[in-house]
Amino acid sequence: MSRAPRSPCPSAVSLFVYGTLRDKEVRDAVAGKPIAPHRLMAAQAHGWRTVYFPGAHFPGLVPAKGHSAEGLIISNLSKSELDRLDLFEGADYVRTSMAVMGTDGPQMVEVYLPAIDIGDDAKEWSLSRWARLHRRAELAHYRATLFKDLDERTNR
């Protein structure tokens, strides 16, 4: 697993998540500890659409006029949480800044965008479909490999 390229960001980082990290069990395991509910806020990325990442069960965001991608803002991420997130997202994504609409108004946040071009015709991705079809198997795989790797790489 390689590290996702990162953009410069301030010490208290907020991150927009739109895919499997919206699942509490995945999010907490990747972060290395439970993320308190007060650090989470519903949000939308206007002008973006959540689609399947090519050849995978997880998503990517693509620009799409007239659409909005549903997600969550995770606030006040620590350096160790960001390090773990960067490892989790790997080389498939690039962390960058973007504006999203939170429940209390617009915010500039970090987001992981696909490192490859995903075509406009990519199939729509949904968390509920992923949970129904892939959650159990992917969590078992993550527990057996990825989460242990994250713990080893971040000395937890």
Automatic annotation (TrEMBL):
<keyword id="KW-0808">Transferase</keyword>
<dbReference type="InterPro" id="IPR013024">
    <property type="entry name" value="GGCT-like"/>
</dbReference>
<feature type="domain" description="Gamma-glutamylcyclotransferase AIG2-like">
    <location>
        <begin position="15"/>
        <end position="115"/>
    </location>
</feature>
<dbReference type="InterPro" id="IPR036568">
    <property type="entry name" value="GGCT-like_sf"/>
</dbReference>
<dbReference type="Pfam" id="PF06094">
    <property type="entry name" value="GGACT"/>
</dbReference>
<dbReference type="InterPro" id="IPR009288">
    <property type="entry name" value="AIG2-like_dom"/>
</dbReference>
<protein>
    <recommendedName>
        <fullName>Putative gamma-glutamylcyclotransferase</fullName>
    </recommendedName>
</protein>
<dbReference type="GO" id="GO:0016740">
    <property type="term" value="F:transferase activity"/>
</dbReference>
<dbReference type="InterPro" id="IPR045038">
    <property type="entry name" value="AIG2-like"/>
</dbReference>
